[in-house]
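Hello Y.,

Per our agreement to keep a running log of every chain we model this quarter, I'm adding this entry. I've kept the format consistent with earlier entries: sequence first, then predicted structure.
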Amino acid sequence: MRGNVVLFEDHYVDDMRPITLTRPAFAVTCAGYRLCDVARLLADRVSYVVREHLRKVAAQSFPPGEVGEGPVLFLNAAVAPDVRYVPRLRELLQAGEPFLCTSGQRVAAALLPAERTLPDPLTPADVTPYLLGMNLPLRDETFRTFDYCFHVVDALKGLFPANIRMKIEENGYEEVQPGVYAGSGVQIADTAVFHAEEGPIVLSENVRILDFTYFEGPVFIGPDSRIIERSSVKECVSVGHTCKVGGEVEASVIEPYSNKQHHGFLGHSYIGSWVNLGAGTSNSDLKNTYGTVRVNIGQKKVETGMQFLGCIIGDYSKSAINTSIFTGKIIGVASMLYGYVGQDVPSFCNYAKSFGQITECTLEQALITQKRMFTRRDVEQTEADIALMGEVFERTREGRSIASEPPVL
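Predicted structure for the entry above:
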């Protein structure tokens, strides 16, 4: 349909670290969709307002559209990618009646009239004051936002039923077994077992399912990904494109180009892009006390309200063989993990506390590793990629005070 949507980051977006250090909030995947995908179901003209350090790399993956004539729907980039919002947002956009609605302390959505004049430039710091200053009528609508990184995991179960059905409808996938839907080029071993009683299993284009794999839906596997033999992929798993997945995975998001190829457990977790989990890497997603999990967000401790929460791992991080990650731990960007991970790990750290070592991973080494990974997947390392890594390195420098601690002997 014709229309204008502007996805905007706001001044709260840093609370979603580390997953929004390297991507706009609208590019975070949950239950097979990103908010930018949902926005394209709403309108044919989608543009965005993002933090300055992400502009160039965002333009590589999401060429911004022009804002044309007609009303403009501003949608917070942290709104959950819930396809159930599409009919209502279409209705509001078509009606063209100005409004503003909130989610907690954030502006979740606002519709500006056709005769509006947008300021240029518009930045994440000033977009909320601008929208509030329009004195638009308040509308009582509910659009959930991801205020913290763990909210992505918390939303999986609620989003999956509608999102997975939309994937099937949008792409016209064929039902190849009861409750199993496949795109073109999918290869499924005869020994694979599928249980779709609780939701469908969707295998996108060119997915390979190897021998003796086990699935419990709902599950979404992105294009060109491979599920390794003897794997167990259970309810509410969302895998991006070009991934390799093995071992046991449950209720987790794995972003594109990441590998969890070997045995080990991953549960109720979010894994960024270009992550590699070494053989035997496992995480805990349940406290021994069976209580709810608390996490550290910046300088504050936040009660998640979740009994099951594994780990959050930023882009480019890696784990060595037999790494064990404790419940509710947050791992930054481009860090290396060894042994027992019993505390949060900042970005650009070599974390081997159980062996008495925590050191900084240099930017030079991170860029060399990035280039090697990109080359293996026929992806070009651009100047924008290099600049973003450098910017994230500087933005996370203060948090690496842990790396200057004396060795634990």
